[in-house]
Design brief:
The protein has helices spanning about 65-70, 80-90, 105-110, 120-140, 165-175, 225-230, 245-260, 275-290, 295-310; strands at about 5, 30, 35-40, 45-50, 100-105, 145-150, 210-215, 235-245, 260-270, 290-295. The protein has about 300 residues and is an alpha/beta fold.
């Protein structure tokens, strides 16, 4: 199958900006893309390469990629760059009312010597470095910094509480992993009191940072005091960074949007342990449906413009 690397902003008609691979790139994601192939009349037609089926053929009566391809139903990437550009033009950021929220930037994902659900090595190094830059910038311009960390308890009868979730329990019982090409564990991931639950030291916490360490599921809001903390800090804009783009970060974007918070994801500072394709999807989903996706440089420029306007 022919594949090329796409940045999250690439549209159906071409690419915008550079995109590197999952291990070293900031915006990379693997997706099948339409390829021009000559038809019998000598013209050209767009032929989308197939993607692996999500469901076994015919399971539950759901169509698979194998079923869809002959009917010409394979999806192509929709070009919404004009939407993104227009939305970025009207975005304004007040640092005093903005909180940067790091999501699961802990050793359980990012310290490959001890990680129980590891990110790919170069991707982990890149995320830590870029997120450290983001936090230095945020603290310097007066943004609040909040770290949200997952901790899983062992219940009184000896079961890891994460296995109360039927999907995660099924992954464990079938001896599958959620991290393609890398060993990981669900039942032993980020147990309370282990080193895996510690924030990566390059990221803090620094004096003035807030740590929320009662995250039990994908949500950063459910059964934590994050919502109260944001209201106490007078926050109307959240800037999201961390793991994983397509699960915890995407969930945070949905929940922040539902709370009428201006929601920004920094593309340099998010990655997925589940694969580049889902990382790519999640950034598209946020930018087209939920909020803004900015590079760190774009965020800094927006904040600079807001501060300059305030001074004038």
């Amino acid at each position: 199958m022919e594949e090329r690397r796409l940045g999250w902003r690439d549209g159906a008609q071409g690419r915008e900006g550079d995109a590197l691979d999952h291990d070293s790139g900031r915006l990379g994601g693997l997706l099948p893309v339409p390829r021009q192939t000559p038809d019998e009349a000598g013209g050209e037609r767009a032929a989308a390469e197939p993607v692996p089926p999500v469901f076994p053929s015919g399971a539950n009566g759901l169509a698979t990629s194998r079923d869809m391809e002959p009917a010409g139903l394979m999806p192509v990437l929709v070009d919404r760059r004009e939407l993104v550009r227009s939305m970025n033009q009207v975005l304004e950021i007040d640092p005093r009312r903005t909180a940067v929220i790091t999501i699961d930037c802990h050793r359980g994902h990012l310290d490959l010597a001890v990680a129980t659900m590891p990110l790919a090595p170069q991707a982990a190094a890149s995320l830590v470095g870029e997120t450290a830059r983001l936090l230095r910038f945020a603290r310097a311009c007066g943004m609040s910094v909040i770290h949200v960390l997952t901790q899983n308890r062992i219940l009184p009868h000896g079961q890891p509480e994460v296995l109360c979730n039927p999907f995660w329990a099924a992954v464990e019982s079938t001896r599958q992993v959620l991290t393609p090409g890398r060993e990981s564990t669900i039942s032993r991931h980020n147990l309370v009191g282990t080193v895996q639950t510690q924030l990566m030291p390059e990221l803090g916490p620094e004096p003035g940072d807030v740590t929320v360490d009662r995250k039990r599921r994908l949500s950063i809001f459910r059964d934590t005091d994050l919502d109260l903390t944001l209201r106490e800090l007078g926050v109307d804009t959240v800037v999201l960074a961390g793991i994983s783009t397509n699960t915890d970060v995407l969930c945070a974007a949905f929940e922040s949007q539902n709370r009428d918070l201006q929601t920004i994801v920094v593309s340099d500072c998010v990655r997925s342990v589940h694969g580049d394709d889902l990382h790519f999807f999640a950034l598209q989903d946020v930018a087209r449906c939920l909020g803004w996706v900015l590079t760190l440089e774009e965020l800094a420029a927006k904040v600079g413009a807001s501060r300059a306007a305030a001074i004038r």
